[in-house]
Each structure stands twice: as C-alpha cells, then as structure tokens.
Amino acid sequence: MSAAPGLLHQELSCPLCLQLFDAPVTLECGHSFCRACLGRVGGEPNADGTAPCPSCQAPTRPQALGTNLQLARLVEGLARAPQGHCEEHRDPLSVYCEQDRALVCGVCASLGSHRGHRLLPAAEAHARLKTQLPQQKTQLQEACERKEKSVGLLQHQLVEVEETVRQFRGAVGEQLGKMRLFLAALEGSLDREAERVRGEAGAALQRELAGLNSYLEQLREMEQVLEEVADKPQTEFLMKYCLVTSRLQKILAESSPPARLDIQLPVISDDFKFQVWRKMFRALMPALEELTFDPGSAHPSLVVTAAGRRVECTEQKAPPASEDARQFDKAVAVVAQQLLSAGEHYWEVEVGDKPRWALGVMAAEAPRRGRLHAAPSQGLWLLGLRDGKALEAHVEAKEPRALRVPERRPTRVGLYLSFGDGVLAFYDASDADALTPLFAFHERLPGPVYPFFDVCWHDRGKNAQPLELVWPEAGEA
C-alpha cells in the first residue's frame, strides 16, 4: 500500500463512532458514515423526507442511500491486515508523531514522511496523553451541557410557539364568536322587524282588498239592475231609472283611491353596512365596568357623591389637604377605587358640556402630592379638553399634542385598556351605538394602574360641571 501510515485506517473510519465503517453509506455531499450511526444521529426527517448531514448539514435522503460496496470492500481488506503494524512498512507502530497526531513505525519516523517532526516513543506518548484524558472528558461534558441547554431552549420555544398559537386561535375564536353572535342577533332583530312589517302591511292590504271586493260587487249588481230597467215600459222605466241612478251616484261618491302603505325597513346599502360595523365594534368592547370614585384620593375641593359615581369641584373654600399620600393636594383630581392590573377593561365618563377635564390612567406607584407632570414617563396617560374646544393628548413632550378638532365635542368619553396588547384608546361615546376614535397610546404599561380623572379647577363657576361614571344601567349617581 502506498498510503501514508494510519491515513487509510483514518479514511476508512466513521467520523461518528471512530470505528471502521460498518455497512458504509455515502451521502450526496460526499461524506460517509456507518448506516447505523447515521440513523442514530440523523433524527426525524423533515417534511420533504430530507435530513441534514452530520458533518456539513447539507440535506440528504437517508432512506434512498444504498451501501457503498467499494468502501465496504476496502474496510474488509483493512480488517484482515495485521493490527498494530505500519500499513506501508509492516513494522510495529512504536513512535507517536505529535505534529500529525499519528502512530507510526520507526522507518516512517526516521526516513519517511514524518522525518523531522516532533516525535515521542509510543509508551511515553501513551502515558502523557492518558493524563490529558480527564481534561478531554471535561470539555466533552461541557460541550454536551451547552448543547443540552440549547436543546432545552429550543424545546421551550417550541412549547411557547404552541401556546402562542393556541392563545391566538382562542382569541380569534372568541372575537369571531362575538361577531357571529352579534350578527346573528342583529339578523334576528331585522328579521323580526321585517315579519312585523309584513304582518301589519298584509293585514292592512287584506282589509283594503276586502273593501274593494265588496265595492266591486255592488257595482256589478248595479250593472245588472241597469240592464233590467232598460226593458221596462215607459212609466216603470222612468220611476226605476231615477232610483237606480240616485243609488249609483251614491256608490260612486263613496269610492276612494286605493291606500298606499309606507313600508319602513332599513335600506341595505353601503351606509347600512357601515352602521352595522360601527354597532358591532361597540358590541365587541368589554362589558362596561362599574367604577366608583375613591373619596380618599380626591382633592379637598372635590365633592364625591355617596354612590361614588359623580364628582364636582365646589366653589366653597376647601379645607387643607391631609397628610395622606393617597390624596391629591395640588391637582384637582381623583382616581377610581378599582386597581386594574391585567386583561381588558372599558369604562365611560359623562363629561357633558364641561369645558376643561382630563381622563386616563395613573400608575399605582406614581406620586399624587404636589404638581403633576402629565406624561407617560411620570405614570400618567391622559387625554383632555382645554377651553371647551381643544382636545389634547398628553404625550412625552413639553406641550400636549393638539388633536384634530372633531365636528362635535364629545359629551361622553369611552376608555379601552388592554394590558396584553399595550393599548389605551379613547373614544367619543356620545352615540350609544357607535364609538368614534379620538386617540390611543400604544405601549405596555409598567404595572397596575388606577383610572384617573382630572376634574380641574371650577374657574369661578365656569368649570363647575361634574364628571359622572356611566354604568350599564342608568341609576342615581
């Protein structure tokens, strides 16, 4: 053999088990492995039937590979050769080449391709390398641990993907289910309205039809009488003619034009579809929450009703604020008693014609003492009205962001909060069946929040109007 010592043995060894090939298979990329080793590390094939090569990750089809007979015959020949001897010189392998990391014979070491390399007697190399074995084992174990962590991370991510998809499907089913229920209820309502109109109109037309048939029968009877009178003698003709014509004129005078019913049903047009969408959007909001104002947080100038649903700024001189850190002492504001920390929430506030107010949420940990800086970084996410006409969003800036002036000033404001989606949206809820967007913050809140209400100073009676919390059923505030 002309191959370098040990090279043939190395080339005919599986890179996975480091043993001579057993039923070798050669992949499309050129790498060869024992069939059993490839099956052990290849894992489950992909959807297209391919699996990655363990050496280069190139795709291959293990089931389509046949045994490499040429490689198998070489392995069989090498297995019959004497072990522990140089493949080229047949001398014992007594020298270790550190440079090539190969066991060679004395001829290869002194005269062959390893001449001049760093060489050690095989016994010395054995003793030295054996001491390094624990270090190699440690490195191998560390590599295994790293890969096991990677496998665990990937498995965890797979579980997360499955859970995310499950939650997504659940949310889709829930939302579309609400839409289906709303549309089914609307369809039923419109169908009942159509049936009512059909019943009323049908009954009215039946009555009209009965009257017309009766009138028509009278006309036909008069027609028959006229024919009978025509053949009567002179005296009888004249007498009966006067009676018949008098009766005929009376019947004709009683005749009225057919009634035309005004059928009132919705017109199925683009506007109808838009109105349905607006109503459905309102119906898909979470149920209206029954919030109450927290009297303990209210500024001393504010008066909260016993039911906790109405607050106003009084013009009477207010007592000094207490030392309670929960009470606002500078801002003429109040928060709700309810702490919101997860899920979806929707509440409405009746602002009426109040010219100045601000609504939103306040971080539970945000300070309430002293002047408040209305900005998200300070734990306040607010929308407000100034001077009765300017809607402002209190964003992260020196001045609030002026919003487009709506055609009409909202008299009721709806607030939608979703912790999961990171949304705080404000709507004009003046129309009970339709919500008109005003502004929305898109950011995940850092923690629990309280609904916040800035009633603002009464301004010598110019801003004394109250704020009222809207509940699902009207009642005393």
UniProtKB/TrEMBL annotation:
It is found in: Cell membrane, Sarcolemma; Cytoplasmic vesicle membrane. PROSITE patterns: B302_SPRY (PS50188), ZF_BBOX (PS50119), ZF_RING_1 (PS00518), ZF_RING_2 (PS50089). Keywords: Cell membrane, Coiled coil, Cytoplasmic vesicle, Disulfide bond, Exocytosis, Membrane, Metal-binding, Transferase, Transport, Ubl conjugation pathway, Zinc, Zinc-finger. Residues 81-122 form the B box-type domain. The keyword Kinase does not apply. Residues 14-57 form the RING-type domain. Gene3D superfamilies: 2.60.120.920, Classic Zinc Finger (3.30.160.60), Zinc/RING finger domain, C3HC4 (zinc finger) (3.30.40.10). One of its GO terms (cellular component) is cytoplasmic vesicle membrane. Pathway: Protein modification; protein ubiquitination. Its EC number is 2.3.2.27. It catalyses: S-ubiquitinyl-[E2 ubiquitin-conjugating enzyme]-L-cysteine + [acceptor protein]-L-lysine = [E2 ubiquitin-conjugating enzyme]-L-cysteine + N(6)-ubiquitinyl-[acceptor protein]-L-lysine. GO terms for molecular function: ubiquitin protein ligase activity; zinc ion binding. Residues 271-476 form the B30.2/SPRY domain. Pfam families: PRY (PF13765), SPRY (PF00622), zf-B_box (PF00643), zf-C3HC4_4 (PF15227). It is an enzyme of class 2 (transferase). The keyword Ubl conjugation does not apply. PANTHER family: E3 UBIQUITIN-PROTEIN LIGASE TRIM (PTHR24103). Belongs to the TRIM/RBCC family. This is Tripartite motif-containing protein 72. The gene is Trim72.
